């Protein structure tokens, strides 16, 4: 990933308007946080562009397809989310403007909570106890210690590392998989395709925290799932299109996978008739593992606007070639 991009000519005196496109109801919270943390910044809210040629920055989630054709002088794009797939999918996205990914402590903690909740639920057999309660059946399952439970985290970026750190603190056996090697206390780092099968064969609870890119779409297919030990669990909070959904259903139906907790889907909202909704061993949340929090996220945006104005490097710039 590219992490630093400089503005060609530093300019400390002007803060040109930022355009906010966020197609949900909490726009007012974002405007308030931006106003508080950078009062000199004029915030315009899509579709009220004013003079579009004045807009230098855009803070976006799922922009309308033609948006960028209307912004001739845009210099930096900020993604409201950690993933940039919603921008890459936009047909008018310019390829020569830096895209700053969202790095927000509030977003990260929400993801850590979601993963921890599901890891503990699978690790302690809570779904099985729920089923036993429905049958008024009293029976103790064997208790496995955290030290004996192997968790594999796919994607050891900002979020994957925070998840790994907590699980290590709790005593779990943690290993992670990424494109480049990582040095993280207590975490075995596995890299690339060459080490993927061994990583999967040693994973009882698989946590997918990968971005959606050309290289990751469809990665979790029948062959991939077969590498996991029988009875493994899957948690996917990365992106829905990482998974070939038919292959996952098949692995669940054959009992190769014990259960899956899914927050993201190839098609969102998940269609009403989709088999995941009624599958007894699938639990669904509607892409809410975590949400970017305006109060903690705006600091990242205003710091980068300040840096750009001062001709300093931007942080967390996505690599469009890699797609994350
Ligand atoms: P980062 O960019 O910090 O981390 C991405 C990680 O994925 C890196 O470790 C990277 O490896 C690894 N990776 C990317 N491509 C490959 C590949 N082909 N093979 C192996 N590893 C790969 O992202 P974040 O941690 O901030 O976020 C991760 C994703 O989580 C987001 O892109 C988004 O899709 C999802 N997300 C979902 C949310 C939800 O509510 N469900 C909320 C927030 C995020 P390397 O380090 O070697 O580059
Ligand atoms: C993100 C998301 O990418 O919420 O931040 O999905």
Q: In a few lines, what is going on in this structure?
A:
The chain has 324 residues and is an alpha/beta fold. 28% of the residues lie in helices and 16% in strands. It starts with 17 loop residues before the first strand and ends in a 15-residue tail after the last helix.
Describe the protein.
By secondary structure, this protein is α/β, with parallel strands linked by helices. It has two domains: 105 residues, Rossmann fold, CATH 3.40.50.720; 177 residues, Rossmann fold (3-Layer(aba) Sandwich). It is 28% helix and 16% strand. It contains nine helices and twelve strands. A seven-stranded parallel sheet has the order 8-7-6-9-10-11-12. Helix 3 crosses helix 5. It is elongated and about 65 Å long. The structure holds NADPH dihydro-nicotinamide-adenine-dinucleotide phosphate (NDP) and oxalic acid. Oxalic acid (OXD) binds next to loops.
Query: What is the spatial order of strands in the main beta sheet?
Result: 8-7-6-9-10-11-12
Task: Spell out which ligands are present.
Answer: NADPH dihydro-nicotinamide-adenine-dinucleotide phosphate, oxalic acid
Topology as H/E string? EHEEEHEHHEHEEHEHEHEEH
Rounded Rg: 21 Å
The count of strands amounts to 12
Roughly what is the average pLDDT, rounded to an integer? Answer: 94
- The total count of helices amounts to 9
What keyword list fits this structure?
324 residues; alpha/beta; Rossmann fold; 2 domains; seven-stranded parallel beta sheet; five-stranded parallel beta sheet; elongated; binds NADPH dihydro-nicotinamide-adenine-dinucleotide phosphate; binds oxalic acid
